[in-house]
Amino acid sequence: MLVLTRKQGEKIRIGNDIVITVVGINDNQVKIGIEAPSDVKILREEIYSKVKEHTVQATKMSKIHLDLDKLKLNKINKEK
To answer: pTM here?
Structure first.
């Protein structure tokens, strides 16, 4: 992990397309602005974790649903 010290108004550049600006500093809170191409997803860590968790759950449910569909198809095929 790279750790940098920045003052209000100073910037950090990531590659050619991403710029992070320290917008404000209050007590124990830092406000940052992020400029990035529209195809770059920017999420707070807690939101990213929730999205990932829901995606994993949805994938598991989808697999269960597909397995049930296979069972139904096999049952129908046996009846014919």
So the answer is: 0.64
DSSP H stretches of helix in the chain: 45-79
**What DSSP state is assigned to residue 40?**
S
Q: What is the DSSP letter of 54?
A: H
CA dist 62 and 57 (Å) reads 9
29-35 vs 18-26, strand pairing mode: antiparallel
pLDDT, one tens digit per residue, over 12-49 is: 999 999 999 999 999 999 999 999 999 999 999 999 99
Angle 15-44-28 from CA coordinates, rounded to 5°:
100
- φ/ψ of 30, rounded to 5, equals -120, 130
Sequence-separated (6 or more) residues with CB below 8 Å from residue 32: 20, 21, 22, 23
Domain ranges of the chain: 1-40, 43-80
